[in-house]
Amino acid sequence: MSAACWNVWSTVPQLVRLFWVVSLLALSLPAASANFETKPEFIKTCRFDQPDFVDCSTESVQGLFDKLVTGIEGLEHVGTIDPMKISKIRILQGDGPVSVNASLSKVVVTGFASTKVLRNVVSSKDFGWETHIRLPKMRLEGNYHMQGRILVIPLNGHGKCWFEPSGMDIIMRTSTDLYQKNGHVFYNVTGTKVDYTISGLRLHMGNLFEGVKVLEDSTNQYLNDNWRPVSEALKPIIAKTIEDILLAIMQNIFHQLPADYFVADLPRSGGS
Questions:
Q1: Nearest to 84 by CA among 114, 111, 116, 117
Q2: For the chain, what are the domain ranges?
Q3: What top-level branch of life does the organism fall under (predicted)?
Q4: 3-state secondary structure string, 170-234?
């Protein structure tokens, strides 16, 4: 990189640089990293024809989550998942009890270090998988800018915010295609669908209504006192946000880590 280019690049905030890199990576199918020519020790390899395949696969995915908490050496452009930093999230919803035009920036997500993988089932027909995950508590904090309403409450403001769902049980359904490269079978993750339940929700949005403190406090109190209907109203937005984040992460990971390290007897016919 030339000195002039480096000077321009160095002025770009770190989170924005990370977002650009991840976005460009998600559009490509990179070759396997040379660091993964041999299977890492943290991956447990399973086979469809073994009687305890589901238990084995569940343990294998748990091992992957555990390593992602601290970061995996050689896995390019994937940092730790706790904390997880996201440059920007756009939220658009125009129907039902929620009508908002909002964005979150400089988002930090914590809590994934306590992820418990309850069950992971891989289909031997289409090779997608269904993963059941329990997350005791997650915290999302950052800067928000919002106009709209939730239930009967009009919301208008920008400032700091945080959300804390607790007792989160997530079911993630992932669709994939298989392809071959460098002598291995890889997953091309094509989509995710997320459903979840929670046992509690706390939240706070600062500087609502241009800093009118009485309205801000009463609105946050109402939203917390009525967290169940608020959670249900926000569920389509939150689920879609989780889906988008997980899809980008999994596309990145599984274009670098061969799928046959996880399931040894995946078919090899039809690959490139």
A1: 111
A2: 84-258
A3: Eukaryota
A4: EEEEEEEEEEEECCEEEEEEEEEEEEEECCEEEEEECCEHHHCHHHHHHHHHHHHHCHHHHHHHH
CB-based contacts of 15, cutoff 8 Å, min separation 6:
85, 86, 87, 106
Dig out the tokens for 257 from the structure.
Answer: 């880590």
Radius of gyration in angstroms for the set of CA atoms belonging to the chain, rounded to a whole number? 21
Mean pLDDT of 112-125: 95
CATH superfamily of 84-258: TULIP domain (3.15.10.30)
Q: How is residue 129 written in tokens? A: 């998988």
Q: Rounded to whole angstroms, how far apart are CA atoms 110 and 95?
A: 30
* pTM, two decimal places: 0.79
pLDDT tens digits, residue range 78-111?
A: 778 899 888 888 877 766 777 888 888 999 999 9
Residue among 173, 164, 69, 50 at smallest CA distance from 116: 69
- Provide the residue type at 56 as one letter: C
